[in-house]
Amino acid sequence: MTTTTAEPRTANLKGKQRPGDRWFSGTALAAGSMILVTLAAVAIFLIVQSLPALFATNEDASILPTNFWDYVWPLVFGTVWAAALALVMAVPLSLGVALFISHYAPRRLSQALGYVVDLLAAVPSVVFGLWGIGVLAPAVQPIYTWFVDNVGWFPLFNGPVSSTGRTIFTAAMVLAVMVTPIITAICREIFLQTPVLHEEAALALGATRWEMVRMAVLPFGRSGIVSAAMLGLGRALGETMAVAMVLSVSGGISFKLFTPDNPNTIAANIALSFPEAYGTNINVLIATGLILFVVTFAVNAVARYIVSRRKEFSGAN
């Protein structure tokens, strides 16, 4: 009898909703749906505007060398190559800074560094571009010359060396500086959420602080580190002004880091070419934007897959 009378009461309690609950759930549903609608609208626009360019030739669009695919592949290579170089430099630095702020620095110093990191993340990209072209490129050009003269036998360091320092590697360094605050801020918050029980257990077993970080902090934050790195990669893939200002473009595909022959990126190419584009050339540039949209979407999908595989980690909550 007790069970039969309790079940209707529970059902009635679950069925009752206040007006505020209905309003909040409807607002949340509308906000979530708006994201999907916006994403679908952007995708539809890119696809529709790109169709005339996918099968176009140099007779249809003056900016095409032969056809669209011969035009876009070097841009895809330059975009991925610059972003990958930036990520290789930014991730270790970001992890080091995040670990120092969360587990090594004194409290006041960690708060100050955390504020500085958040402030760097808000600096406009054009400021980084000005710094890259005015300060970084002239400073690293002698270093490039030394590498080409002494380690030129290695394919990545082969010459001729750039006389201005405005190479793909300089652009990658600027991108690394831009994405480091983003990755650092996310990793810092993840490391601070490490269960204290794990850290104290490692220290109680005689582990040093670095061993505690390696055995407790880094495994706990592995999925978050991947998410932060992919977020930084997405920022590097879509960066426009800083790359357009720093990179001296010659076109083509080249893995050499210090030469004046540098591939361009999709975003920078659109920014530089769009003001003078007309006719089918506009569709060609929009089609390259569609390729960048697909690449960024694929990167985020891979990141979500990697993060979902790490959800089985059992933290002491």
Automatic annotation (TrEMBL):
<feature type="transmembrane region" description="Helical">
    <location>
        <begin position="278"/>
        <end position="303"/>
    </location>
</feature>
<feature type="transmembrane region" description="Helical">
    <location>
        <begin position="71"/>
        <end position="101"/>
    </location>
</feature>
<feature type="transmembrane region" description="Helical">
    <location>
        <begin position="23"/>
        <end position="51"/>
    </location>
</feature>
<keyword id="KW-0592">Phosphate transport</keyword>
<comment type="function">
    <text>Part of the binding-protein-dependent transport system for phosphate; probably responsible for the translocation of the substrate across the membrane.</text>
</comment>
<dbReference type="Pfam" id="PF00528">
    <property type="entry name" value="BPD_transp_1"/>
</dbReference>
<dbReference type="InterPro" id="IPR011864">
    <property type="entry name" value="Phosphate_PstC"/>
</dbReference>
<keyword id="KW-0812">Transmembrane</keyword>
<dbReference type="InterPro" id="IPR051124">
    <property type="entry name" value="Phosphate_Transport_Permease"/>
</dbReference>
<dbReference type="GO" id="GO:0006817">
    <property type="term" value="P:phosphate ion transport"/>
</dbReference>
<feature type="domain" description="ABC transmembrane type-1">
    <location>
        <begin position="76"/>
        <end position="303"/>
    </location>
</feature>
<feature type="transmembrane region" description="Helical">
    <location>
        <begin position="168"/>
        <end position="192"/>
    </location>
</feature>
<feature type="transmembrane region" description="Helical">
    <location>
        <begin position="113"/>
        <end position="137"/>
    </location>
</feature>
<dbReference type="InterPro" id="IPR035906">
    <property type="entry name" value="MetI-like_sf"/>
</dbReference>
<dbReference type="GO" id="GO:0005315">
    <property type="term" value="F:phosphate transmembrane transporter activity"/>
</dbReference>
<dbReference type="GO" id="GO:0005886">
    <property type="term" value="C:plasma membrane"/>
</dbReference>
<keyword id="KW-1133">Transmembrane helix</keyword>
<dbReference type="InterPro" id="IPR000515">
    <property type="entry name" value="MetI-like"/>
</dbReference>
<protein>
    <recommendedName>
        <fullName>Phosphate transport system permease protein</fullName>
    </recommendedName>
</protein>
<feature type="transmembrane region" description="Helical">
    <location>
        <begin position="240"/>
        <end position="258"/>
    </location>
</feature>
<comment type="similarity">
    <text>Belongs to the binding-protein-dependent transport system permease family. CysTW subfamily.</text>
</comment>
<keyword id="KW-1003">Cell membrane</keyword>
<keyword id="KW-0472">Membrane</keyword>
<keyword id="KW-0813">Transport</keyword>
